[in-house]
Every structure is written in C-alpha cells, then in structure tokens.
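# nightly structure sweep
# worker-07 picked up a monomer target from the shared queue
# config: single-sequence mode, recycle default, output format = structure tokens
# input follows
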Amino acid sequence: MFNNMNDKHNSENISEECSKTSSSIPSAVPEVEADLAEAQIPPMTQVDNDPRLTTVIENLRHVYDPEIPVNVYELGLIYALHIDTKNTDKLNIMMTLTSPNCPVAEELPQWIKEAAEKVDGIEEVDVELSWDPPWSPSLMAESAKYQLNMF
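# output follows
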C-alpha cells in the first residue's frame, strides 16, 4: 500500500477505510498554537530533558497512522512526552488522532504504548488521548507536509 508502512501492526487487519489518501486530511484549524496553550498542552519542542525521550521519539517514528503514510510523531499526533517526577520509570504520553472516527482509534494508542515500552528505563507508559485541541495539518512536521505534497 505505502512504501514505508512496514510496521507489523499496520499490515494486520487494516480495513478498506485505511486506504484513503491524504485528500481525507481535514482542513487546518487556524489558531493551533493558541489552542495548544489554552489546553495547556506543551508543544513537542518542550519535552523533558531526559535522554530516554530521544529513544522514545525514535521508536515513535516507526509507528504509522495506516490512513496516512507518515509516522505518528511527524504527523503531529503526539502532543506531549513527560517522565513522571515521582516514578521516573513512568512515561506519560498525551496524543490525539487525526479524527475521532479513525478506524484504528483503539489500536493506535496501544501501538504507541508498545513502542515507548521498548525503551530501557521505561517500565510503565500511560497514554492519554486528547481531542483538545483537535488535530490539524498545521501540527505536521515540514518533512511530513513535504512527503504528502502539502506545501
């Protein structure tokens, strides 16, 4: 289907709805940065200064939304990564989906959790799904926009 969708999770039992192209991406929400601040979700540039997070991010770059041939990190689905201050083996992840009607809404957070749990020193991962602010293409990394021809 897509050249870089080799993740085993993405190749198993994906419904026909997952074959939609980038034309199904919703239109941009104008004030995403303001929405992020209002929702008190830190932008991904403000992750904790813990070296394990570099490895977590690298692992997340191997998890793909099956509807869009871009990894979840560069797609902008990860709102925050935070190492718990009381339990330093616990990672909290705040994420969203491209749509509440995403066919893999139940599976994608689990794939993200599994990718993060592979990091040495991370024993527990809590994934929180947030719809505030809603995902929009403006959250995508420039490389993801380039890959989808969204200039």
